[in-house]
Amino acid sequence: MMEDYQFRQAMGKFATGVTVITTEVEEEVYGMTANAFMSVSLDPKLVVISIGEKAQMLERIKKSQKFAVNILAADQKELSMIFAGQIEEGKEVPFSRLGDYPVIEGAAAQITCEVSSEHVEGDHTLFIGRVTNIHLTEANPLIFYSGRYRSLEEEEVSAI
Predict the structure, then answer these.
(1) Residue 85 has pLDDT above 90, yes or no
(2) CATH number at residue 53
(3) Cis bond leading into 141, ω under 30°?
(4) Residue 74 within a domain
(5) Residue 21 belongs to what domain range?
(6) Mean pLDDT over the full length of the chain
(7) Helix H segments across the chain?
């Protein structure tokens, strides 16, 4: 029988970027750290995020029907920790706006989305987002692998 610990260890072997998902409900901005994000389709441009049933963000996205995916830059580890609840709140978070969406200032990429559909699977809800806007910077991404934050080393690698 597969243990939860073993499953988590296996999933941790997949290196991911780190995102902060943001939304706004009644003029209040909310965010949460997530690495469960991926692109789905180029035409139309769709992405998916996965939000746990116990996360406060779940009802907020259901209510707002919109979200932004902020792919954090290598120097934004502290922001990741704040939105993951690892650092006590009370620090000022530098939000800016991309159109009508709250986004994280200085992120490597900001991707705004309208909820296209939602699917409950296991203990998570998958939100399919129709991309409405994108803003990119030249920053390298923050990486998460095997339970630790990492940085992307600049080196020559062969293309896939």
Answers:
(1) no
(2) 2.30.110.10
(3) no
(4) yes
(5) 17-145
(6) 91
(7) 4-11, 57-64, 77-83
Q: From CA 43, how far away is CA 30, in angstroms rounded?
A: 29
pLDDT band, residue 14 (cuts 50/70/90): confident
CA-based R_g, the chain, Å:
16
CA distance 137 to 21: 18
Confidence at residue 29, expressed as pLDDT on a 0 to 100 scale:
95
43 lies in a domain?
yes
If you ran DSSP here, which 8-state letter would residue 91 be given?
S
Which residue, 97, 98, 116, 109, is CA-closest to 136?
109
Q: Could you tell me the two tokens for 38?
A: 């991926």
Summarised one tens digit per residue, pLDDT across range 121-139 is 999 999 999 999 999 999 9
Tokens of 107: 């992120």
Whether residue 80 lies inside any domain: the answer is yes
pLDDT at residue 10 in the model: 87
